[in-house]
Amino acid sequence: MKGVLVLNACADDYHEQGRLLAGFLAQRAEGMEVDTAVVFYTEKTDCASLLSAVPVQQALLVCLTQGRTETMLNVLAALEARKMAEVYLFAGNCFGSEMAVRLGQRRGGSAMAAVDGVQCEQGCIIATKAVYGGHMEATFVLKRSPYCLSVAKSCAEPAAETGEPAVLLETLTVPEGTENNFSADFTLMKDEQEKNLETAPFILTAGRGAKSREGIEYMAKAAEKMGAELGVSRPVAMSAWAPLNRMVGVSGAMLKPEICIAAGVSGAPAFYAGIEKSGLIVSVNSDPRAPIHKKADVSIVDDWHTVLQYLCDEFIKERDNTAGDHISRRTGAAGEK
Ligand SMILES: Cc1cc2nc3c(=O)[nH]c(=O)nc-3n(C[C@H](O)[C@H](O)[C@H](O)COP(=O)(O)OP(=O)(O)OC[C@H]3O[C@@H](n4cnc5c(N)ncnc54)[C@H](O)[C@@H]3O)c2cc1C
Fold first, then answer.
1. Domains held by the chain: number
2. Of 169, 253, 297, 318, which one has the greatest count of Cβ atoms within 10 A?
């Protein structure tokens, strides 16, 4: 099956894209022939250096004034008339995944982001990718051409650049106006919460027993009062009561805090795998037969609301006592002076 690489030289990681895609072609792609790359760049870039980083024989350079994804999609759609390829391969960064999904949707083909490997067969592509937070590998059969795929970053050893420049097929210049320019600028923001969950020594995990978004908000406040991070079970994240990056279990974060309170959680294996390495597990569930009780070090058969309220009061008392203790010790020390 014939494929084409799509490289974005408007981005800082242009060389990395080429190395990743070359590694993917050499190690993870069966039955695919790729000899051409489409390279998007802006006027400021030097063409010779662009061609030296292309990991296939020939390149079609597309010069843009601004480097907008919208224009790139239009160019790729127009190039389809040339029947250059059935497969479009992008590097697995934000740009590549966005382009793969949008191009696949526009052209009525198949799209998949972060693919680990492909096998091209007559009339279909068998693609593998990591799912459930990287704990399982799934195999998909893609049946509609064009196949628009972005490649997972760590699926293959990146290939070294050969230094052999690709042959220039053609240069297209595409001016860009301001029409349809719905995003003027963007910044990727790191989610601080994500790393807190993985490293927190104390975690409160909330399950579907919370019953509603309000229930989860209550639990989040309780966690804050106790100095814990909030994790949630999959049904809670899937109901959008909490962000997806708070999900605990095989599909989310695998944690090993010193203490984990599991409240309103039944204790299904897929969830439990995410907390089993905790130093101490406390279950809070009103159903005495809930599996989580058998797996916990301490089990409390009660309504989570009552228990968390009690725990928060105790934490606050303890904190105030400790603070009072410090103050009286400091005052005592001052008195002795
Ligand atoms: C491939 C696959 C991957 C999965 N990955 C994950 C994963 O990563 N993480 C995950 O969590 N799940 C995952 N699941 C889903 C998992 O199997 C369970 O369905 C899920 O963990 C159940 O979530 P829960 O315990 O919040 O809800 P439920 O099973 O509905 O349990 C709710 C519990 O709350 C209790 N409860 C109700 N009211 C109260 C109250 N007032 N006070 C105290 N307790 C109360 C109930 O007794 C019940 O035990 C996966 C499933 C599959 C098939």
1. 2
2. 253
Distance 259 CA to ligand 1 centre (A): 19
Tell how far the Cα of 245 is from the centroid of ligand 1, in angstroms. 17
Of 98, 48, 93, nearest to 73 by C-alpha is 98
Residues having CB within 6 Å of any atom of ligand 1: 132, 207-209, 233-236, 247-252, 264-266, 268, 270-271, 284-287, 290, 303-304
Q: Is the pTM of this model over 0.85?
A: no
What is the domain-level CATH number for residue 236?
A: 3.40.50.1220
**Segment (H or E) for 334:** helix 304-336
Evaluate whether residue 182 is within a structural domain.
Answer: no
Q: Name the strands in the sheet holding 202-206, side by side, starting at the edge strand that comes first in the sequence.
A: 229-232, 202-206, 259-263, 280-284, 298-300
**Same domain as 134, residue 201:** no
Handedness of CA 271, 272, 276, 281 (dihedral sign): positive
Residues 239 and 317 in one domain: yes
Distance (angstroms) between ligand 1 centre and the Cα of 336 equals 57
Nearest residue (CA) to ligand 1, atom 4: 270
286-308 pLDDT per residue, tens: 999 999 999 999 999 999 999 99
290: burial class by Cβ within 10 Å (0-12, 13-18, 19+)?
Answer: buried
DSSP state at residue 161: P
Q: Which residue range is the domain that position 225 belongs to? A: 192-327
pLDDT in tens, 65-113: 888 888 999 999 999 888 889 999 999 888 899 999 999 999 999 999 9
Sequence length of the chain is: 337
Q: If you measure from the C-alpha of residue 113 to the centroid of ligand 1, how many angstroms do you get, rounded to a whole number?
A: 28
The minimum-distance atom of ligand 1 relative to the CA of 249 is 8
Task: Check whether residue 167 and residue 214 sit in a common domain.
Answer: no
